[in-house]
Specification:
The chain is α+β, with helices and mostly antiparallel strands. It is 36% helix and 33% strand.
Amino acid sequence: MVDLASRNLLPPVVVFFVKRDLQMKSSFYCLVVLALAGIGIAQNSTPAAIQLNTIYAGADGKFEAAPDTAVVRMDIGSQQDTSRTAYDHAAAAVDHVRQVLKANGIDVKSAQFGSYQLQPIYDWKNPKHKVIGYRVTSDVTLKLHDFTKVGALTEQLADIEDTQNQSVSYTLEDIEQAKAKASEDALRKARNQASAVATAGGRTLGDLLYASVDVNQANIIPVFAPQMMARSAVAGAATPPPTAEFTPQTITINAHVNALFALK
């Protein structure tokens, strides 16, 4: 019998069944039909994803915009021997926050009260886990569009007893225009790449046939002002607030575009 595999006429899996007993002819024919059908499907599925006389390109773009909102956040926490005393200290701290906002011409309703928790403090060294105190925690978040008030506000909030973890960050709430600019930048880069490839191949880039866009905003890391550091700054009257004379950090919007162009 001729070894068809040595002549590369049939795949090795087909040759294996050719050398078997003639009683397996029906199985062999079935295998060949399935193999050829699979090859036909594979050959027909690939061109379906490819359109002739087109070119596909993907690119990243970005746009940096000035922020329009400052976010001031602070935690309020008090630990005392009794739950009532802890509550009174936290309530007094929150009331001081209200007074600071009013003194700076800010509507108290524009600030958001995030949470309120009252938790017992246990002595875990004691086998009976005796309660030794209570802790009240809450947080307040304020959004400002007038950046000139940020410095004085953070300075005055830092002087309130039982306040912790004060932070300032900048964000862009009117973001749609920035998204459009980032998408335009990504599409421009994709078009340039596709045009360069088309020119290298002796063709001319045609119209845009299809495009998909994915836009996202870079993570904003808030700047924390620990209470001890903030209060030391307040101690010196001549010391300016941390944000004085600095420009708020810009917001970066990223976009990715996948585009399909016609080729002339």
